[in-house]
Amino acid sequence: MSVKRWLLRRMPHPGEWLASSALLRPLAPYLGHPALWSLQRRKVALAVAVGLFSGLMPGPTQMLTAALLALLFRINLPVALACTLYTNPLTYLPLYFLAFELGKLLLGMNGQLVMPPFPAFDGAHLWQWQHAVVAWAMHMGWPLLVGVPALGLTFALCGYVIVMLLWQCAVLRQWRKRKEVRGSD
């Protein structure tokens, strides 16, 4: 079975999906566009790139960013949204540390700034902890501000190239299989 057929079986049908949600029903003219559900190679590769880039956006804005970019570029919406899910509470800090180090490298600040330890959460003072997290992020300043988009663009470029190459390999493999079945040279 091809990847495209596998995805088509698992993707929600836009009409049913939009009609079943009272919240999304007013957005149906925008979300129902066929290009947002298309499984063409370039649209899927761009959706992966958008999802990987958007996954590094702060907090709850990841899927919103991916959805807005998918609408803007008219690329596969479910793939863009799904590709933001590589960031989670376990991967967020290592990714931001990597972005911080990349930002330091790009700004020529090697060895000048050390990433402070992440504030500990005691479970009782959520509001104070949130302020400590904001102060922690502000301390990192420019390296993080430069590093996050740079790392996101790097992930996006890698994701785009990998999807294009894997899709091309799958198409070539299907052509070879078809040729063998037909018995022609």
Biggest sheet character: none
Please give the radius of gyration in angstroms. Answer: 21 Å
Overall pLDDT: 84
Instruction: Note the gap between the termini.
Output: 23 Å
Helix content: 55-70%
InterPro entries: DUF2062
Keywords: Membrane, Transmembrane, Transmembrane helix
Domain DUF2062: 24-176
Pfam families: DUF2062 (PF09835)
Question: Would you kindly provide a written description of the structure presented here, covering whatever features stand out?
Answer:
The protein has 8 helices and no strands. The chain is mostly helical and 185 residues long. The longest helix is centred in the C-terminal third of the chain and has 57 residues, at 126-182. The protein is globular, with a radius of gyration of 21 Å. The two termini are 23 Å apart. Helix 4 (41-54) packs antiparallel against helix 5, helix 4 runs antiparallel to helix 8 (126-182) and helix 7 crosses helix 8. The chain has helices at residues 3-10, 14-19, 28-31, 41-54, 62-73, 77-82, 92-107, 126-182. This is DUF2062 domain-containing protein. InterPro entries: DUF2062 (IPR018639). Keywords: Membrane, Transmembrane, Transmembrane helix.
